[in-house]
Specification:
The protein has a single domain, classed as Hotdog Thioesterase (Thiol Ester Dehydrase, Chain A, Roll). The chain is an alpha+beta fold and 157 residues long. Strand 5 and strand 6 form a beta hairpin.
Length: 157
């Protein structure tokens, strides 16, 4: 899907490839890029004007969407869950603003998974500066979904 985004594959740092998530939501709000190295899954986004609020900083809702995806998809990959994880709870602490042109990047820490729940945290940062600290609880469904495997999420890696 073409979104008319100013971002393209050239705007991402080395080692990242386009993230392929099912559904149009990410296409509209992305493009998102990702990498999986050293057991850690990172999502990245070049912030554009359309991601920012009226005063020119990244909208808190954009940070929330990004953190939600970072934690859930990070758990999928790092804990090998292989399913879409609906978020039950999401909590964010906004530490510093992101600005147009910044490379927003997240990294997930899986805290614990049980048979039905997954707990995770992430830090969103740009240039080594922390912008957001987030934590989430996600529901683990009873059935796997083959669309949510590392090979399908990052087919170009």
């Amino acid at each position: 899907m073409t979104t008319g985004s100013e971002s393209d594959d050239a705007s991402m740092p080395p080692g990242f490839t386009r993230l392929h998530l099912p559904g149009p939501f990410v296409d509209i709000n992305g493009p998102l890029f990702a990498q999986y190295t050293d057991g850690k899954f990172r999502i990245g986004l070049r912030l554009e004007d359309r991601h920012c609020n009226a005063v020119g900083i990244c909208h808190g809702g954009m940070h929330a969407m990004f953190a939600d995806l970072q934690i859930a998809i990070g758990i999928v990959v790092q804990a090998d869950v292989k399913a879409f994880l609906p978020t039950i709870n999401l909590s964010l602490d906004y530490v510093a603003p992101g600005r147009i042109g910044d490379w927003l990047e997240g990294e997930t820490e899986v805290i614990r998974t049980t048979r039905n729940l997954a707990f995770g945290t992430c830090i969103l940062s740009t240039g080594g500066e922390t912008l957001v600290r987030a934590s989430a609880v996600c529901k683990i469904p009873s059935q796997e979904d083959p669309r949510f495997t590392l090979e399908n999420l990052l087919p170009d890696a």
